[in-house]
């Protein structure tokens, strides 16, 4: 019989936990970045849209190169078409960042609304297995989707930046919480 000791700070990958000061520094830096992002959510929304566009263009280029490189694998035409689609999508995002931010925000609102309804249904069907957590999560998803969609198009200019800022702050809080775990105080 094999037993596993989970008390070691080494974790599953056998890498040591980062030192306390690194965790604190990373947490504070992420929180600061989050507050800076929240300082001008419209600018960050535009920058995010342009960044997503360039990443899409680059990914499309690699997809087309990959199609020619691996011609014998099959699906050549589909890979080229997918690459063209990525490049076209990216060109629209880069060329029209305001309109693209509106489109991305509208799609985000729809996704949140639909996924919220699905989570509510899952929460109800799995009520005995702590389904209330899924139900609550779904309710927040539906509420967020409705806030985005009912305030559209004005929400399209600030929602993406707000979400990025909140995500950075919560990620920073997560690193700070990790830093103060008893097993990470090894430095």
Automatic annotation (TrEMBL):
It holds the Pfam family DUF308. Keywords: Membrane, Transmembrane, Transmembrane helix. The chain crosses the membrane at residues 19-38, 50-69, 75-94, 101-124, 130-150, 157-180. It comes from the Bacteria. The keyword Transmembrane applies. One of its GO terms (cellular component) is plasma membrane. This is HdeD family acid-resistance protein. It comes from Bradyrhizobium icense.
């Amino acid at each position: 019989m094999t037993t596993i000791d989970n008390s070691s700070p080494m974790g599953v990958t056998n890498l040591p936990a980062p030192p306390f000061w690194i965790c604190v520094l990373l947490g504070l830096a992420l929180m600061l970045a989050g507050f800076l992002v929240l300082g001008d959510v419209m600018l960050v929304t535009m920058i995010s849209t342009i960044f997503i566009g360039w990443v899409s263009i680059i990914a499309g280029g690699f997809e087309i190169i990959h199609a020619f490189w691996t011609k014998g694998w099959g699906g050549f035409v589909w890979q080229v078409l997918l690459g063209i689609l990525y490049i076209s999508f990216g060109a629209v995002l880069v060329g029209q960042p305001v309109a693209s931010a509106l489109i991305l925000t509208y799609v985000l609102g729809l996704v949140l609304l639909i996924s919220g309804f699905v989570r509510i249904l899952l929460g109800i069907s799995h009520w005995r297995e702590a389904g209330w957590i899924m139900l609550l999560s779904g309710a927040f998803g539906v509420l967020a989707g409705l806030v985005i969609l009912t305030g559209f198009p004005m929400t399209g200019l600030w929602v993406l930046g707000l979400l990025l800022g909140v995500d950075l702050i919560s990620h920073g809080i997560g690193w700070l919480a990790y830093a103060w775990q008893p097993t990470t105080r090894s430095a």
